[in-house]
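User:
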Amino acid sequence: MHPLKIHLTLAASLLLASVSACAGALTLPDLLRLAEEANPQLEQARQLHSAAKAVVPQVTAWSNPQVGIVQTPIPGSPFRLGASQGSSYTLTQPFQLFGKKQLAGEIAEAQADVAGAQVTFTSQQLQAQIKNTFYQLLAYQHQERISQDNLSRLEQIKRISKVRYANNASAYVDYLNAQVAQSSAQNDLFALQRQSDTTRQTLNTLIGRQPFQPLEIVGDLTGQTQTVPGLDKLTELTLSKSPTLQASASQVSASEKGVELARKGYLPDFQVIFTHYSDNPPWGWQGKNYGLELDVIMPTWFLQKERGAEDQANASLLANRANDLSLKQQVLLGVASAYNGLMQARKQVGFIRERQLPEAQVAWRLAMQNYATNNAQAFADLLLAQNNLRNTELSLLQAESQAAQAWAALEAAVGSKLTD
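Assistant: Predicted structure:
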């Protein structure tokens, strides 16, 4: 394509994007912001995180005290409360051995960290879905423009074949074939518009809106210009940023604390009972006699319960460590796969843009020139050149879309943005 035509096409695209933006079209950052505000799955994850954090003060709080009244002796029947000859009031406060509630709180905090990492994971997966759907819808819009260009070229072929038939330079079947090809292209455009509508409805759902709400987008198919870090850097970034691995590490930490807590189960707990004796039964408070009792709650019955709890905690710890190792392998494998997918998509874009598309454009121009001027080109060859140009343009668009989606997939696999 001539450089001037390239600049004119780019200017027209920028003008169209500007007009769309002024008309209320949404950019990718707009969609991501709306999803953060309104997506119900993300809101569910946030509320589950809040619920998990609310467990911490519950398990670290002191045990509830017990207040009681004792009436004794009661002559004749235990239900003759008014006949009691003596009464006392008790206040009982249980105490766990120092460190048990702290460990329980640390376990609850680790579990809350798991829920917090799940919020981050849900947000990142949602962003990846939105990006993929956004790039797919953007590709459909570009494909519609390619289809319109294709229709224009077929209309040009149809007009030339009609003129040539009028001049007895070609058969009428050339005109009919051009008309059939144009009708087929128009039918493909209808199918493309249906796909575009379905994708738009999906995007509306992801950002928390009703599927059939009007939605216009504006943006570019990125994925070719960003600098891609090497696999070593991506691995390092993944190990420090991946919410999946952060959640797994928190789960391992909770299991380690669980083992410590289970071992403290062999140690006794206590309770203190403060008693006030009344000399004004049955309900009076008068009196200056008091009692103080210290009880030790011993682990007994051959420590079966405590041994079972420790065995369970140790097994859970080993299971979570094995799961952590497995997750690291899976996540890093996913990063490597996403990296390879992005690099392959970029190579394909470069090959089509630099080699296949210029060849298809030259072939189309020569075929049209020869058919229109000196009848040196058969009509079937002209349609073939047109079809090859259309397919090449669509292949380039598809490769660009795949590269954009591969970039989003790589960021989702790493668990962090790769650019500011």
